[in-house]
Spermine/spermidine synthase
Amino acid sequence: MSVTFIALEILWTRIFSAEFFYTFAFLILSLAILGLGLGGLSIRFFRKLNNSSLIWLYLTLSGILALIGPALVLRLDLNFTHLFSSGWMLLKFILTIVILSSSFFWGGMALTLLFKLENKKISTLYMADLIGAGLGVVIAVVLMNTIQTQRTTLLICLPVLLAALIQAPKWWRTVPAVLSLIVLFLLPQAETLIHKERKERFPVIFSQWDAMANIKVAKAGDDFYYCIIDNAAHAPTFQFDGDLDKPDSLKRVSGYPLKYLIGRTDSCTFLSLGAGGGADVLNALYEGATEIHAVEVVPYLNYMMTDGFLKDFTGNMYHNKRVKVVTEDGRAYVRQFRNKFDIIYSGSTNTFAALASGSFALAENYLFTREAFEDYYRAMSDSGIMLLDHQFYIPRLVNDAIDAMKKLNVPNPARHLAVYDFPGRGRMVMLMSKQPMEKATWENALYDLSSENYPQFRIVYPSPDSIKNNLINQIVENGWRTAQENSATDLSPSTDNRPFAAQMGMWKNFHVSELETVQPWEFKGFPLAKLLITIILLVIGLLIIPINLIPFLKKGEKLNVRGWLYFFLIGIAFMTVEVILIQKYTLFIGSSSYAFMTILFSLLLASGIGSFFSSRFASTTPFLGIIAWIVLDVLLFGFLTEKLVLLPISGRILVTMVLILPLGFFMGMPFPKGTLRVGSLVDWGFAVNGAASVLGSTAIMLVAFNYGYRVALVTGAFAYFLAMLLMRSERVWIKE
């Protein structure tokens, strides 16, 4: 069961965050845990459902809904931007919630009933649940990377159908058996079944969907393709015949002119952060860069350029002896160098594709934090310059760059910056130099700063007197706090402890009248992420938690307040720690996909083992172990991982597992220990735990937005501390 359930969370998050946008990241997590918990509550409410002979039926229904759920939702044509302006769209959204939570609901009934009937064996059962979930993480990611996401989504229904087959009476076994055959029959049609119709600007001539990205190649012309990542980002790719000496008039390039910047040095070492479809690399080759590092975090993009679909189209460019192809997170890669690069080029590296990444995230990244700019500054040669453009982050990033140089004791950081505005492109460009920037550099770096070009290209820092009150100039000269008054978006610094560059919305910009025109991003200051989390919290607080209080009104044996609060607290605590660790260790590992798999697998595997051995430990020992390890993580492990960043990614993964496994071992003990106290009332405890898990996984992001990861982890530790006090009490948790 658990292999299927955890894999569905991963797969559905990947699918729907790419097809609908990143708002689905938290929605799928919430629906999954909520569905499991409500299934458990149904076992408590309706005694006739407490029948072991029905487990196979619950599992079969779960498998059927898991099979048809994605296809149904994708055909509803849900549009989040119309959610508050169209009653029909709101109805579609509610139907989506029902469809996607139903599989988890029936699965929750089966799982809870097993826990209830065999509550004295809870340590072993909970171990199987957690280890199965850990294996499900690995299976889902491996299958996505080998047979693609759509086929994996169908195939992952087989484990729960196999569980139904094991539990079914003799003749009823034909039902899950036939359904399993149907799954196998449908596999060749997976890409057609799990597909959202959309009008593409250009015809799509190639597609690939793995654990990292949904990649499409669209043909914009005979010599010009677009690589579309997660239906959000567009990376240009130009046809190249291998001739680098052709006249400038025949060269097709994208991005910004590099002739002046590359020509400043006799031998230019060029770093492309987010090389995408190779346009920046081709630009650097044309202008004579002698060493080019093409860094891209999406593995299949690099594969297409080196050996796959785009190899011949781009003239085998990535096999040029001057090009070094690197599949790595840009931040993880740049930290390996000191005084190396003459140019660090970041052309919209963090785009909507990052927002669509999903999986327990709300677009946090470590490319644009204060510490990231420290790394960029160190990695630049003595004459190095970083060029960074973005649609809407630049005001915040200027602040981060200044803070970084101040921390590095760079005198007068403002002299190392120049910022340009491209109104026609809807973008801004920031230059950060290792040495104080000379006037000739910022005047000649890109385009001619003339009055004729002013409508399309202008410098805003160092600013002419005529526009000295622009936002960038205010940030540089007076600091972000002063400039914040005139800014609709959040300008506060992003750090590795609070890396939410994309969360720019502020509550002061929330107006009910704007709900009808809300867009799935925050560059105008509308607090979409905070609003989404608040809505989930309101639903949990006003609907789900009261439902979990109803059994108090029923006659017969029931939990008392202590028992109810215990399961509530450990639910909040477990998900708080899990979600924050996934985000926190992404910085160390680099790839968000690898970090997600490593943390979740390690935590669940160790928790399963901890559950098995839970009876051998005193009641408070697991909680003390958890709290102590979290304190170590907050105070010590950050310094340790900082010293080990030069390890290869396999080494970083291994170190992360070593740091997570002891914590997971103890985190697997509170639930079975609580179950042994409440016996058959575990169905209610499981439901309360599920509701609290949703509450914890969402509310903790508000804590992280405002106070950072360290405070968020301490919050999780405090919840475990309160649960320990309840466990330590000798008072019973059951009343008549």
Remarks:
- The chain is about 55% helix and 10% strand.
- Residues 351-362 have pLDDT under 50 and may be disordered.
- Residues 82 and 88 are 9 Å apart (CA to CA).
